[in-house]
Design goal:
Layout lengths: L14 E2 L11 E2 L2 E12 L8 E6 L5 E5 L2 E6 L2 E4 L4 H4 L5 E4 L6 E4 L3 E4 L7 E3 L7 E4 L5 E5 L2 E6 L2 E4 L8 E6 L2 E6 L2 E6 L2 E7 L6 E5 L2 E6 L2 E6 L5 E6 L7 E6 L3 E6 L2 E6 L6 E3 L12 E4 L5 E4 L4 E9 L1 H15 L1 E2 L2 E2 L1 E3 L10 E3 L4 H19 L2 H19 L10 E4 L10 E3 L5 E4 L4 H18 L3 H20 L3 E3 L5 E6 L2 H4 L7 H21 L2 H13 L2 H5 L13 E2 L2 E2 L7 H16 L4 H18 L5 H8 L7 H10 L58 E2 L3 H12 L5
Parallel strand pairs: 3-7
Antiparallel strand pairs: 1-3, 2-3, 3-30, 4-5, 5-6, 6-7, 8-9, 9-10, 10-11, 12-13, 13-14, 14-15, 16-17, 17-18, 18-19, 20-21, 21-22, 22-23, 24-25, 25-26, 26-27, 28-29, 29-30, 31-32, 33-34, 33-42, 35-37, 36-37, 38-39, 40-41
């Protein structure tokens, strides 16, 4: 089961993350896989200006945060002033720490240290303002460092330590032995004297321990020593997402690093790092401290907030249920799928559903998911959802006075958002509709009509209803010389399938192949659903007399930059590769293949689909994989499952950057704009729909919109139908 959605400002909801160390690698379990959940804790309103410095979890899993406003603790999803011990509530400690083994919390003040454990007995008076950091061993010895030197406090006696010519800082204890950093060296306290364990050739910024390992952070990466001998057991790791290490945490499963530009981790023996940055994961990219609690959960502290990564088992079905609920709660607008617009970044309390340029196309993903869901489960709710969205598709035709012309979208008068110049008044009082409809919408319509007929329509009347929808659109196109013709009596900019238009493009420009695929798929579907001979006749005429079959068979490997082909002032061949075309190709492939006019055509389509799949395979898109499986039988199962595990459940369009990372294999992006040798996790990339380049590294809109998750749902239910997903 998924954790419940939370609505609390400024936290939008639980953020589901798919990457990390140890359990953060989505390992298979009998019930599915382990999924990390990120929970954000913000300072209470009266502490918003406090600077957070250090985070600890004690033996009771209570979290404490050291700040310049005192010690804070977690209450709900807020950090509040810790007032439980009244004698301490008004004091500002210089440091806090957890005693080795016992997990007891210790406080260091300007002139004393103390703990509330053991009936409050641990206590020591110190010279004022000499020490600003401490570590406590399991036997109660206290190691102190600061501007006034270093000292050991043991059995009631303070013993100053002779310093090695440099100031010690960052005291730590491991297996009863005290360590500290000093300049570019690591010191260990032996026989009440600091001795140099390791001399570095660069500054040291962080230290961590696990078992017999000692990890060191530097401005240039991190490396590992043997904690006993000081011998280097892992050389400096510079091929990391960000080299400037601010804090370091070694765990059983791997190592975490906090930097000024996010956090990253690497599982033991893993090849790749997983990178956490942006508000998808963190309230602030600068991570100043890391800790784990006794449950193994990870806490990442920034100067402004605390971020928890909690591990929970989940399943593909659990994620699907989360997205289904999310969509039903806040993304259905008149049956159409709507993204959210948020005037306050990431704040669902300010969100509004808004129209977009391609409402019909995006709704096709959701309706398609419900069609496959019904095919798998026969749930009445899935069928109801599908018909609700299909009714919105029908409304796209009836809301405007143009016979068979589908509007892009519709809205009550006076509330349109996107492209206001493209809207027209409806004959239905109080409504407006958006024109300029493109081939993107047409592809969504034929995909939806094919699935509704195949999986949802059960009666003759229902099948007639679906057939009538696609029939009206196709007849509009044919009557208007293979164009969408808008209210101004002119073809829309991108709704054209006439041979003069399609064949005006060189075979090296994708529009020639794409336009042919789209319209032939539509005509074949129209023939299958209505039985009208006109559609078969027209499909064959376009293929035989105007080369549309040859166009369909154009190899995608032949598509390349072909500058100088102008259309409406646009150089159509200048590139780069149009990834929106990929979406239109694959959605069209479903009716193209399933409603092929004969077996010989289906064999040709099989070749065309497989070749297109081959060029798209590196992107690992699950829907493209599954459409190919559902037509030609070819796909990459591992890629599908990987993508669905990694699919980010926080779909707020936060600003996300990866181009600066030093752990990626960057290559010449070429015409297809493949920036890295391998595609990185969707959990690390900007949130996007499937008309975008999967290799994109940077992007976002400042967290002012949220996508729906329908892409996951379509892939999940199609995968269930095709028996790919358990």
């Amino acid at each position: 089961m998924m954790l419940p959605v939370m609505h609390k400002r400024p936290v939008l909801f639980f953020l589901f993350l798919f990457t990390g160390c140890g359990l953060l690698y989505a390992q298979n379990t009998p019930g599915g896989f382990i999924q990390p959940v990120s929970i954000k804790y913000s300072p209470a309103p009266d502490l918003r200006h406090a600077r957070l410095k250090k985070v600890l979890a004690d033996n009771d899993n209570r979290l404490f945060v050291l700040s310049d406003a005192g010690v804070l603790r977690v209450q709900g999803t807020e950090l509040v002033k810790d007032r439980y011990y009244r004698p301490l509530s008004g004091k500002l400690p210089a440091d806090i720490t957890i005693q080795e083994t016992t997990g007891a919390l210790y406080y260091l003040y300007s002139d004393r240290f103390l703990s509330n454990t053991e009936a409050g007995m641990p206590y020591g008076i110190l010279p004022a303002n000499r020490y600003d950091a401490l570590a406590v061993s399991k036997n109660g010895a206290v190691f102190l460092t600061g501007p006034g030197g270093a000292a050991l406090y043991r059995n009631g006696v303070l013993t100053p330590l002779t310093l090695p010519g440099e100031t010690l800082h960052t005291p730590r204890v491991h297996k009863g032995v005290f360590y500290a950093l000093g300049g570019g060296s690591v010191y260990r306290v032996k026989n009440d004297r600091p001795e140099k364990l390791h001399a570095a050739d660069r500054a040291l910024t962080a230290i961590t321990f696990y078992d017999n390992e000692l990890g060191l952070g530097t401005p240039d990466g991190y490396y590992m020593l043997d904690a006993g001998t000081g011998r280097v057991i892992m050389p400096l790791q510079t091929r990391v997402p960000v080299t400037g290490i601010q804090c370091l945490l070694k765990t059983q499963d791997g190592i975490w690093s906090g930097t000024a530009a996010g956090a990253f981790c690497k599982k033991n023996n893993a090849r790749d790092y997983r990178y956490f940055a942006s508000r998808r994961w963190l309230d602030n990219d600068s991570i100043v401290d890391l800790t784990t609690d006794r449950n193994g959960d990870l806490f990442l502290l920034s100067p402004t907030g605390l971020n928890q990564v909690h591990y929970q088992p989940t399943t593909y079905a659990g994620k699907a249920a989360y997205f289904e609920n999310k969509i039903r709660q806040r993304h259905i607008r008149y049956g159409l799928l709507a993204e959210l617009r948020m005037p306050v970044a990431g704040d669902a309390g300010t969100a509004e559903m808004a129209d977009t340029d391609n409402d019909g196309l995006w709704t096709a993903f959701y309706l398609g998911s419900q069609a496959f869901r019904y095919a798998v489960t026969k749930e009445a709710k899935a069928r109801q959802n599908a018909w609700e969205s299909f009714t919105a598709f029908e409304r796209l035709l009836s809301v405007n006075p143009l016979a068979g012309f589908p509007a892009r979208t519709f809205e009550r008068k006076g509330f349109k958002v996107s492209d206001p110049e493209a809207w027209r008044p409806s004959q239905d009082t109080g409504w407006e509709w958006k024109g300029t409809t493109s081939s993107d919408e047409f592809v969504g319509y034929i995909f939806v009509a094919a699935l509704m007929d195949q999986y949802v329509a059960r009666t003759k009347d229902e099948k007639k209803k679906v057939a009538g929808f696609i029939d009206a659109i196709l007849m509009h196109i044919i009557r208007n010389n293979y164009n969408f013709v808008d209210a101004n009596g002119r073809p829309t900019l991108w709704g054209r399938w006439h041979p003069d238009y399609v064949n005006s493009y060189a075979p090296t420009i994708s529009d020639r192949k794409l336009g042919s695929v789209d319209i032939i798929a539509g005509l074949q579907l129209g023939y299958a659903l209505t039985g009208k001979a006109l559609y078969k006749t027209e499909a064959l005429r376009l293929m035989k007399d105007h080369g549309y079959l040859d166009n369909i068979m154009i190899s995608p490997y032949n598509i390349k930059a072909t500058p100088g082909v102008m259309y409406e002032g646009i150089d159509m061949g200048s590139g780069p590769w149009n990834h929106s075309d990929d979406e239109m190709e694959f959605l069209s492939f479903w009716p193209l293949y399933h409603h092929a006019l004969d077996v010989s055509l289906q064999k040709k389509y099989t070749k065309a689909i497989n070749e297109y799949y081959q060029i798209e395979a590196p992107e690992k898109n699950p829907v493209w994989n599954l459409i190919t499986l559902g037509t030609t039988g070819t796909f990459d199962r591992a890629a599908v499952l990987w993508y669905l595990r990694e699919f980010p459940m926080d779909l707020v369009r936060w600003d996300i950057k990866n181009a600066h990372r030093k752990d990626l294999d960057f290559i010449d992006p070429g015409f297809r704009m493949q920036f890295t040798r391998e595609v990185i996790s969707p959990a690390e990339r900007p949130a996007h729909r499937f008309n975008s380049n999967e290799f994109i590294l940077d992007g976002g809109d400042g967290g002012r919109s949220e996508l729906t998750g329908a892409e996951y749902l379509l892939a999940y239910w199609m995968g269930r139908y095709l028996k790919v997903i358990p």
